[in-house]
Specification:
The chain has one helix and eleven strands. By secondary structure, it is mainly β. A hairpin with a 5-residue loop joins strand 4 and strand 5. The two termini are about 30 Å apart.
């Protein structure tokens, strides 16, 4: 999701590691491979900070994904990470995060990666908080449409639409 500078009043629970309030927000869901989230605490003369990093692969290159990923490198983000137990944490909750590496891979054989290798980093004052996913509207495969003009449409009545 694109980073919006909300006040701490809107991000209730940030200091306690569980966001209990977050403004309604639209996010985009990507099915990824080989995801790895890590968080490192640094305590030095500048105080305590948390370095957060996420790396993952997106399979299958196409024009729409390339354009979308290209545009995401131009601004700060917040990223929700779903863990294997169904819980979610937010990277860049207070300060935002950036895509610091984006590699397109064509693959050298049928078994190798044909897609994108993505790295995202953030530096925060607090650990990545747990979030309640019910505060978010999720767009993803078969749930929403992202058009080239950047306008998003979500059809809630499950009807099929034909675009000419």
């Amino acid at each position: 999701m694109k980073f919006v500078n909300y006040g701490l009043i809107d991000l209730q629970g940030l200091k306690t590691n569980e966001l209990t309030n977050f403004p309604n927000t639209v996010v985009y869901k990507y099915e990824v491979n080989g995801a790895n989230f890590s968080e490192q605490i640094t305590n030095d003369e500048n105080g305590v900070s948390f370095s957060q990093s996420l790396g993952f692969d997106l399979l299958k290159q196409d024009l729409a994904s390339t354009r979308n990923l290209d545009s995401l490198t131009n601004f700060d983000l917040r990223v929700l990470v779903e863990f294997n137990n169904g819980t979610y944490k937010m990277i860049g909750a207070e300060n935002g995060c950036k895509i610091n590496s984006l590699t397109l891979n064509s693959g050298t054989s049928k078994g190798s990666l044909n897609g994108y290798n993505i790295g995202i980093t953030a530096t925060e004052l607090y650990a990545a908080p747990l979030v309640r996913i019910s505060n978010f509207i999720i767009f993803g495969v078969d749930t929403g449409y992202l058009f080239e003009d950047g306008i998003n449409y979500l059809f809630e009545d499950n009807n099929n639409f034909i675009f000419n």
